[in-house]
Amino acid sequence: MERIRIGLVGIGKIARDQHVPALAASDDFDLIATASRHGRVDGIDGHDSIEAMLAARPEIEAVSLCTPPEGRFDQAMSVLRAGRHLMLEKPPSATVSEAQALAKIAEKAGVTLFATWHSREAAEVDAARDWLATRRIDAVRIRWKEDIRHWHPGQDWILAAGGFGVFDPGINALSIATRILPEPLTVLSATLSVPANRTSPIAARIAMRSGDAAVDADFDFLQTGEQSWDIEVDTDAGLLRLTHGGSRIALPGEPAAAGTNEEYPRLYRRLADLIRSGGSDVDLDPIQLVADAFLVAERRSVEAFDF
Ligand code: NAP
Fold first, then answer.
1. I need a surface site. Which of 44, 102, 154, 239 has the fewest CB within 10 A?
2. 150 with 298, same domain?
3. 155 is in which domain, residue-wise?
4. Helices (H) and strands (E) in the chain — how many of each?
5. What is the reported pTM?
6. Are 239 and 233 in contact (CB under 8 A)?
7. Measured from the CA of 10, which atom of ligand 1 is nearest?
8. With pLDDT > 90 as the criterion, what percentage of the chain qualifies?
9. Is residue 165 over pLDDT 90?
10. What confidence tier does 79 reach under pLDDT thresholds 50, 70, 90?
11. Are residues 244 and 137 in the same domain?
12. Could you name the domain of life of the organism this protein comes from (predicted)?
């Protein structure tokens, strides 16, 4: 199978931690260039912008965007207008309408658009979905609590408008919940805690529903000590616990299972399949839930936050 020549855009934390290693190990892709205002990858041809990268390396067939969501729409448009396949880090865009527009434009252009949700690729998510498929769901508790200073040091964009605040990690939980629960999720109410000197929430509580089940989500960016990326589901057959971001599962009467983290290799294998089959994958359910939470939310101003 011919390898696909790809360019990587936005050389920051996730590009370095996950995308570069996943591409280096991939049988499907050759990473031949990057575009980033400051970031560079050793040994890879680096450019300051997408336009400069595509002009210098016209053989690039696909582009993967790892920039923050605010501003990504214009970058995505540059790629689609140039007729290249496009992969988007989560969340796919700053707004739902931007992502919907990108899907339509990609379809018209006849190129692949892959809006990724890396947490759905965590090792035990498929097992959770399969086990829940035949159960009655009674209640769901989502606890997604992490230390912003540890995981996102100095990333001021996250708490700015369009940065999603605590929904930046929280949307990962929503991407898993929308994958594993048999019935669609809807938002009932939400409370957003916004630091006095910032625009986006640093904590959030969201009440949702899935079928007849109440779904409670508790997102917190100020968690020190033990971090939690956990989803508990009460069912007619007992309690399912999906923990550690979806990489561990505990089912009633079975020994706990922990898989290996292959999220990004799986995403790039899927991108290759989509490109080769001429398909796209754009599921906007997680970002729609975030938008709905913002629509109905009660906002509270809380203590100013500095990194
Ligand atoms: P980051 O460390 O801030 O890196 C993003 C890079 O994008 C920056 O280094 C910057 O490189 C470039 N950029 C372009 N426009 C920018 C702007 N207006 N403001 C700031 N940077 C800009 O962020 P990240 O943690 O890698 O996150 C990027 C995306 O990946 C987000 O959508 C995030 O949700 C997602 N993600 C992050 C993680 C994680 O653990 N960090 C995990 C999974 C997914 P230049 O200055 O060189 O242009």
1. 154
2. yes
3. 119-259+291-302
4. 10, 15
5. 0.97
6. yes
7. 7
8. 97
9. yes
10. very high
11. yes
12. Bacteria
- Best substitution site from 67, 95, 117, 263 to test ligand 1's pocket, by max atoms within 8 Å of Cβ? 67
**C-alpha dist (Å) from residue 178 to 29, 90, 291:** 29, 14, 15
Q: Give the helix ranges, DSSP H, for 82-166.
A: 96-109, 125-132, 148-151
Alpha-carbon dihedral angle through residues 11, 198, 148, 76, given to the nearest 10 degrees? -30
- Is 265 inside any structural domain? no
* Position in ligand 1 atom list of the atom nearest CA 16: 26
The CATH number assigned to the domain holding 63 equals 3.40.50.720
Best probe residue, ligand 1, of 11, 50, 53, 66 (max atoms within 8 Å of C-beta): 66
User: Cα–Cα distance between 268 and 273 in angstroms, integer?
Assistant: 9
Question: How many Å apart are CA 249 and CA 181, to the nearest integer?
Answer: 15
Beta bridge partners, 35, equal: 9, 47
Q: Residues 182, 219: one domain?
A: yes
